[in-house]
């Protein structure tokens, strides 16, 4: 699942390899934010200046600092400081990746401004407010009831408008359109947030983890086999196209298509073309599925969360889609008088997605082994070392923050452990910002005109048939079989 | 770098019949997948999630 920068451009042959990958950078940046947030446990408030947005009717009341320690900054001040800090860190990251730092900084300024403005629009009371009590509080008679996480959808739509109507702007922004970097940083931070959520209900969290195994079986062994068969037998694709296509549709979008494309020694054009489609269809899914889940699965919140993880391809779209789904379902449940603890639905989506991601390297190796030994025998045979090479490293960061967070929650004196939710809440505010940046970036990468490019129709037909005729529904059935009847704990 | 023409790329791609090794891969994947799902469902049934 994930979205990568390769989707933004066609690869060139002469580009030097950077000394660090986006994957590792996301681990270090995520861990850095987590570590700084943890200092709260010992009374230091190093990240409290981060900007947070409340539901608003008066724009002057929209923004604020996360912590009262920095309240004197005010909302606009917090926004500027947050921008400066993220810009500095991410520009340094861009330089480490061998990008033009100045161009990145300039493009990131626009990306951040548009993405955060979208987030603010999503928090406008007429967009976000859900309950009649809140409508009364804000003095409004109606609202779209999208919750404040509707800001993700706004960011996505703004990105889509840029991609499809302002291609020159999209091209200019491309240096800072890094959805894979943004979502991986967010997922590393998410590990800590989920640890705090899980610590309160360890038994439930453990049983949900076990159920995540079903997702691995489904994605790799069932989805892949069926989609590969459809692509080869019904649509006549050759193996070089069918294997990355099946991986993109069934496993985890772009990462899987690229990993498998490399493993079977396909030409770079193949996974790159598949990746373009993955992003476009992920956008379509994320604009539809969370709302379907709210309408039909609001009484089965965990089924909805697992469904997002299984059906939406690309890490960014899936995990952020899980966030939207959680928000919509919590809102609908609250309107019915049921108040669930937040974090569980998103937690299931993230668990399912991370479990699937873990095996990308192994699956790519298995296919590489079969291809280079039996299908296209070559001296350049698949090596076991490729499993590590293709392993998504951000998962290490996710596991680290989860384990450390859980350890602090369960293994420290109450006076320290009780400060953990606030500390992680601070880091989580950055996670939300990285989610918004991801959504905006996915939108900017989704040039729907590609669908009209000659030859894409056949690829899109396989994708359309497999995704909407099989993957989504089988994902729903499996989610139902394993998660039906399991509900998040009620909020106290 | 100009974008490659996808239609030409797909037309250039030779038609390849399913090899026995591919049929085995599809069959074994589905077989193992369905068997594991049944086992997991049984585990799920006998060890239900609890708060």
Describe what this molecule looks like in 3D.
The complex is a heterodimer of chains A (492) and B (51). By secondary structure, chain A is an all-alpha fold. Chain A contains 20 helices and 2 strands. Chain A has a two-stranded antiparallel ribbon with strand order 1-2. Chain B contains 2 helices and no strands. The longest helix of chain B has 27 residues, at 20-46. Chain B is elongated. In chain B, 67% of the residues lie in helices and 0% in strands. Chain B is mainly alpha-helical. Chain A binds chain B through residues 10, 12, 201, 203-204, 207-208, 210-211, 213-214, 217-218, 220-222, 224-226, 228-229, 232-233, 236-241, 269, 273, 370, 374-375, 453-456, 458-459, 478, 481-483, 485-486, 489, and chain B through 1, 3-11, 13-16, 18-19, 21-22, 25-27, 29-30, 32-34, 36-37, 40-41, 43-44, 47-51.
Determine the number of helices of chain B (DSSP H or I, runs of at least 4 residues).
2
Radius of gyration of chain A: 22 Å
The most extensive interface between chains reads: A-B, 47 and 37 residues
- Number of distinct helices of chain A: 20
Strand order of the largest sheet of chain A: 1-2
Largest sheet of chain A: 2 strands, antiparallel
Helix-residue proportion of chain B: 55-70%
Average pLDDT figure of chain B? 83
Basic shape of chain A: globular
Taken in chain order, the helices and strands of chain A follow as HEEHHHHHHHHHHHHHHHHHHH
Helix content of chain A: over 70%
Residue runs with pLDDT of under 50 for 5 or more positions of chain B:
none
What integer is the average pLDDT of chain A?
88
Termini gap of chain A: 35 Å
**Which H/E pattern describes the elements of chain B?**
HH
Q: Which structural category do the helix and sheet elements of chain B fall into?
A: mainly alpha
Which secondary-structure class do the elements of chain A indicate?
Answer: mainly alpha
Number of structural units classed as domains of chain A: 1
* Strand percentage of chain B: under 5%
Alpha carbon gyration radius of chain B: 21 Å
Number of strands of chain B: 0
């Amino acid at each position: 699942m994930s979205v990568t920068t390769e989707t933004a451009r066609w690869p060139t042959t002469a580009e030097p390899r950077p000394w660090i990958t986006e994957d590792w950078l996301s681990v270090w940046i995520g861990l850095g934010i987590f570590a700084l947030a943890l200092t709260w446990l010992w009374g230091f408030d190093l990240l409290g200046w981060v900007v947070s947005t409340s539901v608003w009717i008066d724009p002057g009341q929209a923004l604020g600092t996360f912590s009262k320690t920095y309240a004197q900054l005010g909302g606009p001040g917090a926004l500027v400081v947050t921008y400066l800090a993220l810009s500095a860190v991410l520009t340094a990251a861009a330089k480490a990746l061998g990008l033009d730092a100045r161009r990145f900084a300039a493009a990131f300024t626009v990306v951040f401004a548009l993405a955060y403005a979208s987030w603010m629009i999503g928090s406008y009371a007429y967009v976000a407010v859900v309950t009649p009590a809140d409508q009364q509080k804000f003095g409004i008679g109606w609202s779209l009831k999208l919750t404040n996480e509707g800001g993700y959808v706004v960011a996505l739509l703004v990105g889509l408008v840029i991609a499809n109507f302002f291609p020159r702007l999209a091209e200019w922004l491309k240096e800072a359109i890094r959805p894979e970097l943004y979502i991986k940083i967010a997922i590393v931070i998410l590990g800590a947030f989920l640890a705090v959520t899980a610590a309160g209900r360890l038994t439930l969290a453990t049983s949900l983890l076990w159920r995540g195994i079903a997702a691995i079986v489904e994605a790799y062994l069932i989805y892949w086999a069926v989609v590969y068969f459809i692509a080869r037998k019904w649509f006549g694709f050759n193996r070089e196209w069918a294997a990355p296509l099946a991986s993109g549709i069934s496993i985890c979008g772009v990462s899987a298509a690229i990993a498998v494309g490399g493993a079977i020694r396909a030409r770079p054009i193949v996974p790159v073309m598949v990746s373009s489609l993955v992003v476009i269809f992920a956008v379509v899914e994320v604009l539809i599925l969370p709302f379907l889940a709210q309408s039909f699965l609001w009484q089965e919140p965990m089924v909805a969360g697992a469904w997002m993880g299984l059906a939406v391809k690309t890490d960014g779209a899936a995990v952020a889609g899980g966030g939207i789904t959680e928000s919509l379902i919590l809102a609908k449940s609250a309107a019915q008088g049921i108040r669930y603890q937040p974090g569980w639905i998103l937690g299931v989506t993230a668990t399912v997605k991370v479990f699937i991601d873990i095996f990308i390297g192994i699956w790519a190796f298995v296919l590489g082994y079969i291809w280079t030994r039996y299908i296209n025998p070559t001296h350049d045979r698949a090596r076991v070392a490729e499993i590590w090479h293709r392993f998504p490293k951000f998962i290490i960061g996710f596991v680290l923050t989860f384990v450390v967070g859980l350890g602090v929650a369960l293994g420290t004196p109450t006076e320290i452990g009780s400060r953990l939710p606030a500390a992680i809440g601070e880091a989580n505010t950055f996670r939300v910002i990285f989610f918004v940046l991801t959504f905006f970036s996915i939108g900017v990468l989704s040039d729907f005109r590609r669908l009209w490019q000659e030859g894409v129709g056949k690829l899109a037909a396989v994708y359309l048939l497999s995704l909407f005729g099989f993957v989504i529904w089988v994902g729903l059935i499996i989610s139902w079989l394993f998660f039906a009847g399991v509900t998040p704990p009620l909020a106290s | 770098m100009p974008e490659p023409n996808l239609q030409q790329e797909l037309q250039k791609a030779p038609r390849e019949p399913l090899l026995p090794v591919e049929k085995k891969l599809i069959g074994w994947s589905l077989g193992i997948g369905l068997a594991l799902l049944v086992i997991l469902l049984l585990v799920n049934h006998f060890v239900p999630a609890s708060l």
